[in-house]
Amino acid sequence: MTSIPGTQVHPDPAAAAHVLATELADLIMLREAKSLPTVLGLATGGTPIPFYQELRRLHSEHGLSFKGVISFNLDEYIGLDRQHPQSYWRFMHEQLFDHIDIIPENIHIPDGTVDELVLRSHCAAYERTIKNAGGIDLQILGIGTTGHIGFNEPGTTRDSRTDIVDLTEETRMSNSRFFDSIDEVPTKAISMGCGTILDAKQIALMAWGEQKAPVVRRALQGPVTSDCPASFLQDHPNATFYLDEAAASQLD
Ligand code: F6R
Questions:
Q1: Tens of pLDDT, residues 104-158
Q2: Residue 214 in contact with residue 146, Cβ under 8 Å?
Q3: Is the Cβ atom of 194 under 6 angstroms away from ligand 1?
């Protein structure tokens, strides 16, 4: 089944982040009213920063509680210690977790420091933990210029699961803006697979800026192909792209 993902175009990232954060707050409160947890899949990188800023505001100014939230991050670099300034563990704590009331035991981020020998079983255990939590209710995504979601680069199959992945040179170059040099950007990561992501009940992908416009077009209006893993979202029954005008500028 192909159900074209919904598309929302907003004047700027802050406006889009506000709408998505409000939708998430409604979901959390709705599930809380039924005594159900909300299982979130979370992304890192530059894109979700305004979204996390808005969630912090909803917590501090409007009392939105995250006590019923269970979170699973999409990915983590292999070889970076938790306290490394560019680890995704640190990013998530600085951007969100340290500022809200989420219960620390409910935070899940792949561990990029586990011994090579047990990395595969760590990935399998991550999958099981997601399943045991009841599956992801809302998965937040960014998109790489290569078409990756999570760190699933072109060539990844639609049914891939949490695993060790190689980062493309394009992705390492793009992420080197956060490091002192490209040599410091790890070459491998642990990433939820495309299948893991597509199992989420609802998916929200954010993209901002002109540099994302070509890949947003390929993801939404190109063929569904592993050359652009984000195009798999065309087959998801409940996926929405939250875009600013620049990122939407090449859509028909
Ligand atoms: C991050 C992730 C990646 C990023 C993508 C875009 O957890 O999984 O897919 O969403 O690389 O990165 P930014 O937002 O920095 O452009």
A1: 999 999 999 999 999 999 999 999 999 999 999 999 999 999 999 999 999 999 9
A2: no
A3: no
Nearest residue to 153 (alpha-carbon basis) of 248, 232, 89, 238: 232
Q: Is any ligand 1 atom within 6 A of the Cβ of residue 148?
A: yes
Distance of CA 213 from the midpoint of ligand 1 (Å): 15
Residue 29 has pLDDT above 80, yes or no: yes
Mean pLDDT of 191-202: 98
CA angle 80, 165, 21 (to 5 degrees): 75
CA distance 217 to 191: 24
Q: Is 47 in the pocket of ligand 1 (CB under 6 A)?
A: yes
CB of 209 closer than 6 A to ligand 1?
no
Token duo for residue 33:
């009213």
Q: 47 C-alpha vs ligand 1 centroid, how far in Å? A: 7
Assess whether the C-beta atom of 149 lies below 6 angstroms from ligand 1.
yes
Assigned token pair, 229? 């893993």
252, burial (CB in 10 Å: exposed 0-12, middle 13-18, buried 19+): exposed
Is the per-residue pLDDT at 2 higher than 50?
A: no
Q: How far is the CA of 35 from the centre of ligand 1 (A)?
A: 32
- CA 144 / ligand 1 centre spacing (Å): 6
Percentage of residues in the chain with pLDDT exceeding 70?
98
Structure tokens at 45: 């990188």
144 lines ligand 1 (CB under 6 A): yes
Give the separation between CA 140 and CA 148, rounded to whole angstroms.
14
Q: Is 43 in the pocket of ligand 1 (CB under 6 A)?
A: yes
Mean of pLDDT values over 1-17: 85
